[in-house]
Every structure is written in C-alpha cells, then in structure tokens.
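Sample intake sheet
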Amino acid sequence: MKFVLEAMYKDSVKFSYTSFDRIVIRGHVPILQGSDGGGIVSWARSLDPNTILTTEWFESFSAKFHINVKKFAQENNIPILPANQYQEKSEIALQYLPRREDFTGVYLIIKSREMTSSFASQTSIHNTNPNHRNITRQERYVDHFYFYILDKYWGPISIRFSSHLPFNVKVFLNGNRWLYREACYQGLNACADDNVITACNDPCRVAEIANSLDERRIRSLCDHWAYKLLPVLSYQERHKSGFRYQWFLHQVEFSHNMVFRSPLALTKLFHSHVALNYEHFHPAQIERFFGHRSRGNYDKNCSLRINHQAEAVTVLRIHSRGCSLKQYNKKQRVFRSEITVTNVRDLKVYKSLSNLAKLKKRMAEVLVSFQEAQYCAHQAAGNCGQLTALAQAGTVGSCRVAGIRLDNERTLNILALLPRLAHLPEGFRISDLRDLLSKVTGKNLSSCQVSYDLRKLRAKNLIDCVCGHRSYKLNPQGTAACIMLPNLAERLCNPLIGSIVNPAKSLLPARFNNPLDRSYYVVEKEIANITNILNFTNTMN
C-alpha cells in the first residue's frame, strides 16, 4: 500500500517500513469455557471417571499450581515478586532482564491478584444424589502469575497464567523486537533503539522480513511456552483429556515507521504537522476512518487529543470505540503512525488468530486513509490564488452555473460541513447534506437550494458524482478547498472588511491608516503575486 506521508517528507526520510508492534494473544481451552458446568464435568471425568467436582477438588488444582510454580522458581533460581501497584510490571521486569546475550528462558515471575472468571461448586438442594454438584462460573479475585521470558527469536516476552481452572492464559509479544532479531539472524546490519529500527544496510529486506510475520509463527511461540510452563497438567494428562489451547487476538498494534535523517528536522516538522491536523477532523469523520457507523453520540465514542508525554514526545491521538490512531516522534528519530485495536470486531474481523492476515490488511487500509486525509489538509495549507477562478462562473454539462464567492454564507456553510460526509463509503446524497446543514445552522433548506450549491462545486471539480447512484463524493482537491475557504473567510476576509468599515483615525493618508492596514496591504500584494506564479485560474475553469 502507498503511504502518502512518505512522498510528502521524502527529502527528510532515510527509509520506512511497516510492522506489528504490541501483540496480546488470549488462549483458552474451549471445553472449559461453558457457563453451565457441562464442559468441566466432561473434562474432569476424562481424567478420572469417579471424580466428584467438590470445592476441594477445584482448590487442589490451585494448590498444585502454586506449589509447582515455587518449585520451578527454586530449581532455576528465578525470583518471585509481588505486584507493585505503584510501578508497572514491565518496569520491574526491565530491572531483572539478563545481560548475557546467550540467555534464553524465564528470568522473573510476578504474582498478582486480579479479577477473573473461575468455577464454583455447590451442593444441590433439589437433587438427592450425594455426588451431584451444581457447577457455575463466578467473577472473583484469584492469583495470576506473570512469567517473564527471554526468547531466542522474539526477545523479551511475557505469559500470564490464571492459577484457577480453566487456566486461561495471555501472551504478550512485540513485533518490532522480533523484527530486529530476525533481521540480525538473517545477516542484516541493523541498529535498534528500544523497539524501533533506526538504521539498516538493506531497508527493502527489512520490509520483506516484517511482512513475513504471520499467525503460524505466533501460534508456534504460544504453544511452545504455554505448554512448557503450565505448572499443573503433564503431557499425558493434557493428551488424555483433550486439554489444548486455542488462540485469539486480544490487542494488536500495527505501525508505519519513517526513519528521519536528522532529529532536529523531525522535531520541527512533527510539531507543525500536529498543529496543522488538530483542527481538521470531525467525530463523524474519525468514525469513518475505522468503518464505524455513527450512533449520534460522538463525545463517548470518539475523540481527538494532543498528549505531551515524557522525553519531549508529543502524541496526536484519535479514538473511536475499541480503536485508536496515534502519531508521535519515537526516540526523536522516527515518525510513527500507529493503529491500536483492543477489540478486533470493531474492524469487522473475527478474533481467531487465523484472521491475523485479514486484520493486518484492514489496519493498513485505515492508516492509509488517515494519512490521505492529512495530506489533503497539508495541500490546503499550501494552496493560494484560487479565489479569482472560484468566483468565476462555470458549467455542468451544458448548464452555466454561478461561481463560488466568500460572501455567500450558505455556500461557506456547505463547504465547512462537507468533510463530515467525506468518508461515507457510497458517497453522500443531497438529503444527507440538507439534514446536516439544517441541524447545524437551524435553517430549513430545500433540496433545490442544496442541489444548486452542489452544482457550483461540481463546476469547479471539487466533488464527483458517483456513477449509477444519486450521490456525490468529495475528492482531494475539494477537501483542500473545504478546509481552506471557510478559514480564509473567517480569519482573513472578515478582519479586512472590519478594518475598512471602521477605519482607525490617523493623520496619515487613508491607505496607511494603521500598521494593520499596511500589513494587509502587503498580504494582498503577495496573494496577487502567488496567483500569477501558480496560475490556478486555468486549472480551476
């Protein structure tokens, strides 16, 4: 896929690549996930047909879990630490990370008490069979054990086990760390800072390696460490009872990384990039980036924010439901665009790990769409000299229509509202624009009035008519005009008119009444010069 920001900043970018970042995989055994207890009874009797599922029987598994974890830690000199509510677990693990390059295996275990769903056994008051038990699922706090591992191919990873049946597990991975190790393993000369590659002798090969990460590699890693570390069941017991984990996508991050030649160039460029894009995204447009349908309550479902974090990192973040898009300057060397999904169903993808390729394609499409919208905003900020051509009359077919003027309030309102409808998949209809315009302005307009203004935009090639449908789509040139013209009318034309209607009293000649007049006079001359240079008049007719 083509990322337009690469072309926009090509003079400052050394190389770029896309890759998975944080990946959280959830694993559970399907037969143990029922809420009525039928699955756990069948599984228990496959181990021992005479099993009675009492409370003591469930607690025996938890006790065995704790005993085996402590035994494993003592045999391998691995510390077991309690969780610290004032410090992230990853920060604690970083302090114990082995310095030996040839080390592989578990180096730390953290014990944490967290909420989860586990089984409960109760005696039935309706069933006279003394061996009968009512098995239910309940939410309660139980001990969880985090195993921090240094894997040969993935580097630092971690696995969380629940100490109670059904022994659900989560695996925490990082695709960028895997990419760096795999690049070095294949003989590339690469340098990395934290979890991002900052230099490489063959960037094209890095991109190919990043694309090779698939669900097969992830499944192999999860199976290897989950079954190796599971401290309760032996291989024979797992095989006999059909205890086998299935893996699901829980949280996935996918990033587009542009490595800049100079940190100073990135810092200056990124702050201007954030300032330019901050005001140009409406909640309805944000929802369309992810393919979400508007529910009419934007405040809860989506937002756009600027966060200033430590180490002088500024983050532009947009959010909608379980999806978010971020842009930030990683380590002052990398411009990263990143999409995070905490519920893959929000991107219309099923949770099974086998759908990883489909999810990756969908996330890349969202990033491309987001960057294209940003590109339009940048184009709008750089274009001048279109006003004369826009004001001239145009034609749609054989019909002559009036031009676009900045003194027409209804036309300016339509231009300001069109970006909210830009990402409708099948385009917008006249009724969509009319209803939105009436809702925002409080004026009831007819379809004929709105259609007349849309013909003006079609005459200037700012919107396209969708073939076979009575709908329209805003093209990139139209997006630029919709961002530029309302701002131009509000921030430049209105102050100019105000200074003419209420001129400041001065003894100087009328054309040099005050510094503001002189400044606007210079601006007017420069706009005329730019118009002549760019010669937009011919292109807009």
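Comment: The two ends are 33 Å apart (CA to CA). The chain has three domains: 1-21+251-291+302-382, 30-166+214-244, 389-540.
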